[in-house]
Automatic annotation (TrEMBL):
Transmembrane segments: 229-250, 262-287
SUPFAM superfamilies reported in the protein's UniProt record: Nucleotide-diphospho-sugar transferases
One protein family per Pfam: Glycos_transf_2
Species per Swiss-Prot/TrEMBL record: Geoanaerobacter pelophilus
Protein name per the record: Glycosyltransferase
Domain Glycosyltransferase 2-like: 6-165
Gene Ontology, cellular component aspect: plasma membrane
Protein's GO biological process: lipopolysaccharide biosynthetic process
Length: 312
């Protein structure tokens, strides 16, 4: 019997949270009274997470564990679980319990109303000021660059209809951001408000560098707006340069030769060089993504899938 709901959870160094996660998640899924499966991807954990997950496989017949042969990132871990999922509704959930499993029925009910992608908006976020500010910036920039209407890109508690998951599985990009990718396939997206809790064990896996990297992935993976903006900036800069050159020519005839403004000219030159280097960086980002795609290397390597096919 195929499951009706698939719960997908990426795991990386979460040994302190896994027991509590199952203590809360399992009763929620049983109370819903529908066939379900729980798929966890161990993303190369260096602690006892994989050992604990293997123990869950023997204890719960609904549990399957995808074991990665290294660390490939949160979104690749979710993609790997999508590949083996079978549910009509697929719900993604982080293992750190900042998004309560008790909110899952709310998302499932929204999908059953006819929505194919259901996002979530975290209420009263229990994160640091830095995390809140970084997330706010990512949300604003992504909405402006991609035109997608999502309130909270950083919350991974989301639900997808099987049709959307199948379309995601057909995509083979070397790097991607699943909520934005799902949004491109959504015919009737929706959002619900969910609770948010403070992380009790472990630490966040997103450093400042990873947050910046995520923002670049969002901008260059789902939009060419950065290139268009830089092209527009190049046109405006060229027009300004021509006007400034004419100004200097006229000034030379009126005032004569002078050297007092040489440092101003250097400052202007450095400004334009900075713009040029910034533009080259944007172009390089797109070229780098193309390079990753044409190599056609595996996005992730699965060492083994633990767990059987029996689903209650």
């Amino acid at each position: 019997m195929n499951p009706y709901i698939s719960i997908v959870i990426p795991v990386y160094n979460e040994e302190g949270n896994l027991a509590n996660l199952f203590d809360r998640l399992y009763p929620v899924m049983q109370a819903m009274g529908k066939p379900f499966e729980i798929i966890l991807t161990d993303d190369g954990s260096r602690d006892r997470s994989l050992e604990i997950l293997k123990g869950m496989v023997t204890k719960y017949p609904e549990v399957r564990v995808v074991e990665f042969n290294g660390n490939f990132g949160q979104h690749m871990a979710i993609m790997a679980a999508f590949e083996v999922s079978r549910g009509e509704i697929v719900v993604t959930l982080d293992a750190d319990l900042q998004n309560p499993p008790e909110e899952i029925p709310k998302l499932v009910a929204e999908v059953e109303k006819g929505h194919d992608v259901v996002g979530s908006i975290r209420q009263k976020r229990q994160d640091t000021f830095f995390r809140k500010t970084a997330s706010l910036m990512v949300n604003i920039v992504t909405r402006k660059m991609t035109g997608m209407k999502m309130s909270d890109y950083g919350c991974m508690l989301r639900a997808y209809h099987r049709n959307v998951v199948n379309n995601i599985n057909r995509c083979q990009e070397a790097s991607t951001f699943i909520p934005a990718l799902a949004q491109t396939f959504a015919a009737s997206p929706s959002e619900v408000e969910v609770a948010h809790a403070e992380r009790l064990e472990g630490e966040s896996k997103y450093s400042l560098y990873k947050l910046v990297r995520l923002n670049f992935d969002l901008m260059t993976g789902f939009s060419v707006v950065p290139l268009q903006l830089f092209a527009l900036l190049g046109i405006l800069t060229s027009l300004f340069s021509v006007a400034f050159a004419l100004f200097l020519l006229v000034r030379r005839f009126i005032v004569g030769a002078e050297v007092e403004g040489v440092f101003t000219l250097f400052a202007i030159l450095f400004f334009f060089i900075g713009i040029t280097i910034f533009g080259i960086g944007i172009v390089g980002e797109y070229v780098g993504r193309i390079y990753q795609e044409v190599r056609r290397r595996p996005r992730y390597v699965v060492r083994k899938v633990h767990g059987g096919d029996d689903v209650r």
